[in-house]
Task: inverse folding
């Protein structure tokens, strides 16, 4: 079985859908998206709806991970108002939900069940990676956690694939054996996917130019 891993989407529903229709072979590839489905782009509610449909239809072959933007939206609805999230992009996301007439709280419940990582003997996939400085990389509100980290990654003996920190092109770090595939789809960049073989080796990168309907 091969793997098709896709970076930060940030509300770019049409861009993501285009990429899957052109490049995903669901008979031969496990699809893994490494978090940040929402915010920034124009189609966050539609993106979450589509993600939930995909996971429901291909539960053994489709995995969505939790990113820091999902974490912040969860915090906003389950604790006190998250003013940082609201100020940065949450107000716009909530407006999109209102226009789409979609239930935020149902999506938040789904987000709470998203895993923080996916791994096998060769791959470790998370939103921001295992940091050298992390005492507990799975403590979600820690700055070095797998949803927030922007520091040097640890070499864990597996290929790490991450997003979270935008880069102009997919970026490889030899010391940690890691690829960053967040190419800023919701800004002036594009969506990146990477195909990996059964032994954790990169086959190819897939570029999806951002659909104008998502900007």
Result:
């Amino acid at each position: 079985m091969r793997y098709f891993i896709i970076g930060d989407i940030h509300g770019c529903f049409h861009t993501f859908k285009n990429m899957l229709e052109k490049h995903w072979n669901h008979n031969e590839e496990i699809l893994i998206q490494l978090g940040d489905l929402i915010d920034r782009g124009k189609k966050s509610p539609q993106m979450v709806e589509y993600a939930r449909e995909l996971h429901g239809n291909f539960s053994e072959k489709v995995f969505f991970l939790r990113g820091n933007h999902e974490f912040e939206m969860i915090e906003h609805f389950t604790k006190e108002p998250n003013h940082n999230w609201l100020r940065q992009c949450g107000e716009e996301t909530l407006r999109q939900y209102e226009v789409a007439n979609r239930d935020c709280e149902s999506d938040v419940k789904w987000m709470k069940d998203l895993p923080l990582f996916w791994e096998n003997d060769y791959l470790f996939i998370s939103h921001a990676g295992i940091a050298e400085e992390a005492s507990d990389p799975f403590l979600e509100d820690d700055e070095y956690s797998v949803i927030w980290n922007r520091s040097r990654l640890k070499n864990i003996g597996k290929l790490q694939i991450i997003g979270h920190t935008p880069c102009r092109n997919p970026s490889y770090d030899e010391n940690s054996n890691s690829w960053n595939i967040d190419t800023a789809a919701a800004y002036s960049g594009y969506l990146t996917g990477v195909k990996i073989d059964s032994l954790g080796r990169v086959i190819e990168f897939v570029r999806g130019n951002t659909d104008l309907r998502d900007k």
User: Anything to note?
Assistant: The chain has a mean pLDDT of 97. The chain is about 30% helix and 20% strand. The beta strands are 2-6, 29-33, 62-64, 117-119, 123-126, 159-162, 171-173, 178-180, 190-196, 202-209.
